[in-house]
Amino acid sequence: MDDKLDQVVDRELKIVDFWEKNKIFERSITSRPRDKHYVFYDGPPFATGLPHSGHLLGSTLKDVIPRYFTMKGYRVERIWVGTVTDYRLKISSRRNFRFKEVRRGLRV
After folding, report:
1. Is residue 44 located within the same domain as residue 5?
2. pTM for this structure?
3. Which of 34, 76, 93, 104 is 20 to 30 A from residue 53's alpha carbon, by CA?
4. Using one digit for the tens of pLDDT, what is the confidence trace for 8-52?
């Protein structure tokens, strides 16, 4: 049993090494056109405390959504932000608008 586990671990380490040496993740972004982009704002993995089975859906979506858009040919940037304030700052700096104006327009 340990021999099979060792083989799996060795294979995984070789794959990770290959991805790092060849910058596969970085190339998945830079090889896509700049004008067809999708930004995925990612927050803390377990914002509500210790991990539990309820986090499975969120973790799965954080993996599946960027992969889907990457496979559809989008240039997917993953931006990590820790709080709602961080989201507002990141979005407003990238989109060139102010949240107060948006709220006023939506009458929120």
Report:
1. no
2. 0.59
3. 76
4. 999 999 999 999 999 988 888 888 888 898 888 777 766 666 777
